[in-house]
Amino acid sequence: MDSLIAALSVPALFVYIPYCVTICTYCDFNVYARRADEFDAYVNAMEREIATVARNVEMPRAARSLALGGGTPSILSVAHIEKIVNDMRANFEFVPDAEWTLEANPGTVDFEKLRALREMGFQRLSLGVQTFEDARLKQFKRHHSVADSYEAFELARRAGFENINLDLIYGLPEQSLDDWRDVLERALAFESEHLSLYGLQVEERTALKKQIELGRVALPDADLAAQMYELAVEKLGAAGFVHYEISNFAKGGFESRHNKTYWLNEPYLGFGAGAHSSWRDERGEHIRYENVKSPRAYIKRLERGESVIAAREEISRAMEMSETIFLGLRLAEGVAWERFQERFGEDARQVYRAPIELLSGWGLLQVDQERMRLTERGMLVSNQVLWRFLPDDA
After folding, report:
1. 115, 56, 107, 54: which is closest to 81 by C-alpha?
2. What is the pLDDT of residues 246-286, one digit of tens each?
3. Integer Cα distance of 86 and 112 in angstroms
4. Where are the domains of the chain?
5. Which CATH superfamily is domain 2-262 in?
6. Which of the residues 45, 66, 149, 342 could staple to 299 if both were Cys, CB 3.0 to 4.6 A apart?
């Protein structure tokens, strides 16, 4: 039990950069384009938030990971990123082998920036490649070209990055299975350590949603997207990648430790406009809170010495248990009975007997003496599986 408490008290730290060169047609994130004149004020405001949180949050253990995401963190200058890093180091301690990740888009990095990032302590780079078709990149208003992706990867290797992830999207409008096979083969040729593959989601209030409604873009084919997922699992497995999470594949030892914090439902602190945090307060209650989304409001509040928290939610024990189940089931390792018992003092097999029996009977869940995990078929329809572990009043 003590070892579990220690693990839960070692948080992940996340810095959200809400700026991009352009906004992709499918994106519904909290992002803003053409605001370079805000960067100085935003980074200065973040300095205040980092110091405030560090003063008010008890950290019994050093942080095990730091990730800069967005948005496009690589849009910032080296000086901006270095200031954030220095502020983090001044206010938090890190374990010796802490994982440091930075998300970057091709076309926003050069060799000097990448070398500086490596020297700052970032060992892991996540490149938003998305696809290897210039026409599609242009269609989605991506700022980079396919050539930029190749160049960014090569420069990252030269700069000393030995842990690189490529982000790819499948299930695109009018994308064939052969098109996706070509994308996978080109991605494998990079010989990166990690691949993240995301099925395209048509979100409300996006340009893509509007284009589909107007008949300018075809609605993606869900059945074909499922075939693309199965093809990826097959090809990446044959290439030596471990399918360790529904959307993520890694060479041995290169799983994202930062992201596993989320999937294991463990504590994390987020900084920046719209960032989320999951923590235990001074009473030991599990709370989740979200910062104000507008970067300008975020900056102004911190300049006035005001809180940037826009919403706060106390997570009930029942919800925390449920979230630990359905987030953990995203991982190939699934949910271990012993770990759940240590954390909550209850046997998950008894608490969730009904959904476990139902889903295992349908061939979507594999159950043994140590754990439960999604089957390959279960991963294909994971959203239809995971909600069944929510509390009745959720």
Report:
1. 115
2. 999 999 999 999 999 999 999 999 999 999 999 887 777 88
3. 19
4. 2-262, 333-389
5. Aldolase class I (3.20.20.70)
6. 45
